[in-house]
């Protein structure tokens, strides 16, 4: 039998200005940290995995690419196809089992396709 799962949605467009984006991320991260239900955080962070924005958003969460991606991956066509700036992060109640970035031409960003498996709460 299927069990009902509550999902909380937070939608925000992160600013291009890095200082404003950091301020936004601090606010969003505070809500994510205060949420006790399972979490999936995904989107265009406009920053790389070594940035403050990524580290702040990913605190306490798992990166789907780190979980099951392989090799080198990029999600943004600009800058010589070198930047992974779109992410799927999950709380420990989920585990990424598939991570794909299909080559498409309709955007400067590539879609990130992740299949998640629900794991028992620890």
Automatic annotation (TrEMBL):
Residue ranges occupied by any Endonuclease/exonuclease/phosphatase domain in the UniProt entry: 18-109
Single GO term (MF): endonuclease activity
Keywords: Endonuclease, Exonuclease, Hydrolase, Membrane, Nuclease, Transmembrane
Keyword flag Hydrolase: yes
SUPFAM superfamilies: DNase I-like
Pfam family, one: Exo_endo_phos
Entry protein name: Transmembrane endonuclease/exonuclease/phosphatase
Natural source organism: human gut metagenome
Origin organism lineage: unclassified sequences, metagenomes, organismal metagenomes
